[in-house]
Amino acid sequence: MELAHRATILTPSLTLAIDSKAKAMKAEGIDVCSFGAGEPDCDTPEHIKAAAMASLDGGFTKYTPSSGIPELRQAISEKFHKDNGIDYKPNQIIVSNGAKHSCYNAVLAVCEPGDEVIIPAPYWLSYPEMVRLAGGEPVIVHTKQENDWKMTPEEFEGAMTPRTKMVIVNSPGNPTGSVYTKEELEALVEIAATEDIFILSDEIYEKLTYDGAEHVSIASLSKTAYDLTITINGFSKAYAMTGWRLGYLGAPEAIAKAIDAIQSHSTSNPCSFAQKGGLAALKGDQTAVEEMRQEFDVRRQYMVERLRAIDRVTVVEPKGAFYVLANISGFGLNSTEFAERLLTKHHVAVVPGVAFGDDRTIRLSYATGLDVIKKGLDRIDEFCKSF
Length: 387
Ligand SMILES: *Cc1c(COP(=O)(O)O)cnc(C)c1O
What we know:
seven-stranded mixed β-sheet, globular, binds pyridoxal-5'-phosphate
């Protein structure tokens, strides 16, 4: 039996391996402090759940238009205008089964076999695999810690070839927590514009910024930026709705139309009643979002302070999302060895940076209670002192 080439080139998720070991240890009754979480630790706000339940009770259980129900696309159009300063008409918006699905649809719509896609590392681990699935080639740009893990215009330009089709920008970033400034984004757009390179802007963490860092949407920068950019967003992170599988994108009309066709023949529409929940999320009270952000900020500051106090660990203070990327290269182990020993000996689960294309780092999520963070950092401190 021979599988399709595209199915054989994917890297099995490393994060899952550590995660399943941590789960197995917990099942044995071991008290594991887990910093692996890629999702908020709070529940979806009640009014969002209530809207979905009411729609189920009301029999809203059938297929919807493939790109989403009109009232949700309208609400997203208004959201883009109000929050991001981007004018996308409802027909430029496609609602999908999560922002991950939106990213994948966008890559499929734009990339042909042989096309290159520039991805700054440390990256969200699904980007290179999506590009490979589309037959494209990920071109990894290794960003520098001293540049706050952000890709410079020179690094971007240096990675470009005549085959470059797209660049992926994720700000605020996972796993780095880095937030690009308006000027930094303008410089990247200027370079992309010289060769009409598409920009996939993953803005899923836009609501989670700290220390006055401001999220800027690339498509809002200029007409040129607007024409080149596909803006990705969703409900998972801001509204603690990861299990709902609901995300969306806005794009120039021709791209949106192509993505709608792809989606209509692959997954059809996003879940009907999840869309009603999404509508309530956008239209309803936003205080839960700000409360979550403030809670994350307290944990972020604590975690950074504790990590910085450890000899040989270096950390760029993250300005967004809910992760801290710590450089552990001073211990002479690669990231997998470090994470495995930390888990086995001290019962702390972190994600090895090799999963994000950087073997010098580990990622710690602070989407977990302050008590766990405190205990876990005591253990990490102890582990690091044992070298
Ligand atoms: C979590 C995450 C997403 C996807 O979220 P969905 O649950 O698919 O909406 C997209 N991009 C990044 C960088 C993420 O961390």
